[in-house]
Design brief:
Layout: E1 2-6, H1 14-25, E2 29-35, E3 54-56, E4 65-68, H2 72-83, E5 90-97, H3 103-108, H4 110-120, E6 125-130, H5 134-142, H6 149-171, E7 179-185, E8 195-198, E9 203-204, E10 226-227, H7 236-241, E11 245-251
Parallel strand pairs: 1-2, 1-5, 2-4, 5-6, 6-7, 8-11
Antiparallel strand pairs: 3-4, 7-11, 9-10
Helix pairs in contact: 1-6, 2-4
């Protein structure tokens, strides 16, 4: 497969680099176009009000690589229109630092939006995310984004799964179908971890900002919210909690159907 790879955590994110290695090991031909800086929680935003700059870079990924000083959606738009010599078979986004499970996270995710931008261009889109415990996430940030030995081992396993799954999911998705595959790997992903088909969890997430500070500003406060999903069908949250790889098919042609 010829794959355009992007993410929302930025070009220097180790999670992106491990995904590239996993995809290359699976035999895919890659081009990477990723944000110059972190663009988490930006959703499908596009940089409408300012010029955006792209630049060829070398990050040792073994494939043509560019940065764009914009959003994941900017990256995919600019890549497909101006940077790639050959149209890819799909857009793959990730691996995201942290889960992208439940309606609130899926709709806000820059990682999922990067894959969705591929779908808007008539290409299959696949988004990969790695669930992390709060402790692991905080430890990762304290280390400047460098995973410790345990997390790196898990990440490599998830990336190998991603390499295999990307080919299967792309091959099974028709062009111009407006489908994105949202895949989340569990915290302790293993080589034998099984994939389960899931639906997005229904999570209520109020109060994501603090009260006004003395300077009048409100600060973002992360929390997972309240899961009010029914017992069936299996949700992405529930699958991850049980140690499964969650695979949710986001078919945007079904929006508005009874």
């Amino acid at each position: 497969m010829r794959i355009l790879v992007t993410n929302d955590d930025g070009i220097d994110c180790i999670f992106l680099h491990e995904l590239v290695l996993g995809l290359r090991e699976a035999g895919h031909e890659l081009v990477v176009v990723a944000p110059k800086t972190e663009q988490s929680w930006i959703g499908a935003a596009k940089s409408r009000m300012r010029p955006v700059r792209s630049a060829r870079v070398d990050r040792g990924l073994g494939c043509p690589t560019w940065t764009v000083d914009g959003t994941p959606s900017d990256c995919v738009n600019i890549a497909l229109a101006h940077l790639l010599e050959t149209r890819p078979d799909a857009v793959v986004s990730g691996i995201n630092i942290g889960l992208n499970a439940s309606l609130g996270f899926i709709l806000a995710s820059g990682t999922v939006a990067g894959a969705f931008e591929g779908a808007l261009h008539g290409l299959p889109g696949v988004a990969f995310s790695q669930d992390l415990s709060f402790e692991t996430y905080d430890h990762l940030k304290d280390r400047g984004g460098q995973p410790d030995e345990e997390l790196r081992a898990v990440l490599k396993i998830s990336a190998r799964h991603a390499g295999r799954l990307a080919g299967e999911l792309i091959a099974g998705t028709a062009p111009r179908s407006f489908v994105v595959h949202n895949v989340n790997f569990p915290c302790h992903c293993r080589p034998e971890s099984e994939v389960r088909r899931t639906v997005p969890a229904r999570v209520i997430i109020p109060g994501l900002f603090s009260p006004a500070q003395d300077d009048g500003t409100h600060r973002f406060v992360f929390h997972l919210g309240e899961d009010c999903s029914p017992a069936e069908p299996l949700t992405d949250h529930a699958a991850l909690a049980q140690g499964f790889i969650s695979h949710t098919i986001l078919d945007y042609t079904r929006l508005g159907r009874p």
